[in-house]
Amino acid sequence: MSGITHVTEFTPTTFEQITVTSSATLLSALLSAGLPTGAKHAVFYPEGDVRWRGDGTSPTADVGVVMAGSAEEVWESQRTLMEAVEFIASGDTLVNIQFFK
Fold first, then answer.
1. Contact 13, 38 (CB under 8 A)
2. pLDDT tens for each residue of 65-86
3. Residue 59 domain flag
4. Strand pairing report for 73-75 and 41-46
5. Running DSSP on this structure, what letter comes out for residue 36?
6. How many structural domains does the chain have?
7. CATH of the domain at 64
8. How far is CA 89 from the centre of its chain?
9. Domain encompassing residue 81
10. How many whole angstroms separate alpha carbon 6 and alpha carbon 3?
11. pTM to 2 decimals?
12. DSSP letters of 30-79?
């Protein structure tokens, strides 16, 4: 977890590897058991580019916030966003996620 010193004060809860596809899907539906209980923070490590939106509108191949492949993205105190966010990719793309309390 190089470069992520600010999440070290949190307790790791669950690690998940999800597959984001070309169909917009809620994060909670991509997780094996839904959002981990008590998780408020997450570090995402996508293995390819994916797009996301958390405003109730599904992302498309051209519209949404890009989460760049091989770059970590940290969401702190974002439980509400994690419950609403949908992901999409141009093809099957793995995203590794470490959740924290």
1. yes
2. 999 999 999 998 888 899 999 9
3. yes
4. antiparallel
5. P
6. 1
7. 2.60.120
8. 12
9. 15-100
10. 9
11. 0.88
12. HSBTBSPTT--EEEEEESS-EEEE-SSS---SSSSEEE-TT--EEE-S-H
